[in-house]
TrEMBL record:
Domain Cyclic nucleotide-binding: 34-110
Family annotation (CDD domains): CAP_ED
Organism: Hymenobacter ginkgonis
Gene3D superfamilies found in the cross-reference section: Jelly Rolls
Xref: PROSITE patterns: CNMP_BINDING_3 (PS50042)
InterPro entries in UniProt: cNMP-bd_dom, cNMP-bd_dom_sf, RmlC-like_jellyroll
Pfam families: cNMP_binding (PF00027)
Name of the molecule in the record: Cyclic nucleotide-binding domain-containing protein
């Protein structure tokens, strides 16, 4: 995982030696909470292996609103940045291997990488991609039917349908598991 990160940011060996010590490897079983809703996020995670979901509680029910897989990053950015309670939980769906970086180290890395224009652009792109995903998902609830949302999920993220339990997919689509079964037929 660390080697993959190094290639993504085209860092020299000297830079990388300084940064590699900021990351800690963690193996966790399925259904492990890495962050609880209302806690302050102190870590950002890079996924080497496995699948995670991001969810919150609404009217006593879990509402899943994003999935993360290998070579993706996840954190409650607002909480991490502003020391405010997280609006959501982060939980493993499968047994996972993640690498985490603490807040102070992450800020040091961001400051140093921001001085390198190519690296700054990559970081900005990662953040904009995440924002775009949230916006598209939100708009799909206004614009699309549940069937259209499911078809888009199949087309854009087939790994979700292959690896994620049906009840999480139904929650992500804003429908019941019964409705999801009907759509699939």
């Amino acid at each position: 995982m660390l080697e993959w990160l190094r290639t993504q940011f085209s860092l020299s060996a000297a830079h990388w030696q300084r940064y590699a010590t900021c990351f800690t490897r963690l193996e966790v079983p399925a259904r492990t909470l890495l962050l609880r809703e209302q806690e302050i996020a102190k870590r950002a995670f890079f996924i080497e292996k496995g699948c995670l979901r991001v969810w919150f509680t609404s009217q006593g029910k879990d509402v899943t609103f994003q999935f993360f897989f290998e070579q993706q990053t996840v954190s409650s950015l607002e909480s991490f940045r502003q020391h405010t309670p997280s609006l959501f939980s982060i939980e493993t769906i499968e047994p996972c291997v993640v690498w985490w970086v603490g807040r102070d180290d992450a800020y040091r890395l961001l400051v140093e990488l921001a001085e390198l224009p190519t690296q700054r652009e990559k970081l900005a792109g990662m953040l904009f991609d995440r924002t775009r995903h949230y916006m598209e998902h939100c708009l799909s609830f206004i614009r699309d039917t549940p069937k259209q949302r499911y078809q888009q999920l199949l087309a854009q993220a087939p790994q979700v349908v292959q690896r994620v339990p049906q009840h999480y997919i139904a929650s992500y689509l804003g429908i019941s598991t019964v409705h999801l079964s009907r759509i699939k037929k």
